[in-house]
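Putative sugar ABC transporter substrate-binding protein
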Amino acid sequence: GSGGGSGSADKGSGHKLVVGFSQVGAESGWRTANTKSVQDAAKKAGIELKFSDAQQKQENQIKAIRSFIQQKVDVIAFSPVVESGWDTVLKEAKDAHIPVILTDRAVDSKDESLYVSFLGSDFVEEGKKAGDWLVKEYAAATGDVNVVQLEGTTGSAPANDRKSGFADAVKGQPKFKVVASQTGDFTRAKGKEVMQAFLKSQPKIDVLYAHNDDMALGAIQAIEEAGKKPGTDIKIVSVDGVKDAFTAMSQGKINYDVECNPLLGDQLMDLAKKVKAGESVPRRIKTEEGTFTPEQATAALPNRQY
Ligand code: GYE
């Protein structure tokens, strides 16, 4: 400001780092926690965040990225709703010399020069953990174990990878039968709706594998409304580890939860600063995460942040 000097941490350039961030949407508890983490971290780091919510639509993300390019932001960060179809817009960012950081979800672009780093979970690993639990849980079972799967957003990295990781873990064991598999778009409402349809069309469901907690929570409502006991009549394995799921676990309604950490904000802002300063950054930064049994979830519940 005039006469006062900046006195801030902007390293004498007088220019605050500007990051354009295109978020997927607000489809789940995980997403809400992720958005808050990114916004809080930007504030803390003294970074100006231009935030845009794509409402789960790729076309909105492409528009947002183009607008960030026009505004000449320093760095673009985004969580791609689906994996495919990004090359053109990422090339535009590259031509404008604006570095792009992928956060949370990946793209399938062959050209690795289109982004500098990818910060997020290993979704294949998460799917494997869910499948490993199933294999152990039913180690003694001799008959068929009928599984229904609620998939995440069609074409998204977590839906693709959680499906394939799970399939890998159970392959070679023909007793595990995925009898129905459909997208619930990572939302509670859709999770409930699709589970209702599964309950009508499937005479015997032993296990529900949900690609995220919100769909599992929606499915729990459908199961209860059908007069069945979630966690007992139908066992449930899910992914994320949000507070509402931990509450359901403490009530015996979810049997196992694979953690996916949404608190990526600080690492993302750190990356943005380094990229802008011309420092080299790792191409891939994986989030560390665990798994929760009902006992572990119940113990973690009082301190769970999201
Ligand atoms: O698991 C789900 C959200 O991309 C990891 O997106 C994220 C997923 C998360 O809607 O709840």
